[in-house]
Write a structure and sequence with these properties.
This protein is α+β, with helices and mostly antiparallel strands and 184 residues long. The chain has one helix and eleven strands; from the N terminus they run H-E-E-E-E-E-E-E-E-E-E-E. Strand 10 and strand 11 form a beta hairpin.
Amino acid sequence: MKKGFTILELLITIAILAVIMLVVGGVYIVGLQEYPKIFNQSQLQSNANTTLAGIVNNIKQGTKIPDSYDIYTKGASVLIIELPAQDTNGDFIYVDDVLQVDTFIYSLNGNDLEKRVFGYDLGVRGGDDGNPSVILRNVTALNCTYDVPSNPVEATCSITTEDRTNLKTYTYTATRTAYLRNKK
């Protein structure tokens, strides 16, 4: 009696291994194709959340949300916040017992979310003169609502961002609510 495998047994084994390799390879290829999309979506969410966290932090440090500043008017797509001006030691700046303020303006310019800072000249944020800095790109909407439109102490802001990759559009909206300093 001969020991070994017949040709039929070898062919069946090769066929089974080929099917297993096709399944494993298919799962691997799908993973490779989906990774960039999932990574882009994750980056989109992370960037929107980080940007909104910075805005919320400024609201929490703010003393007032004025109706207007310079050519800007508070509204759904424009947020104006007054923050206490600080010196290099981090102390608030008072002149004749009046707290000096830096004004932060967030607004949408096309698909760019911009931040402008009009700082008190002698403070650490002075001298910026309101030059815009883009803090987030691919923004389709900035929406801010206020608890009392005439004298708000609470602001709810949302940022909607969009990513178009591989002929698909992914949209993400982050929303946060914050109260001004010492107002709640």
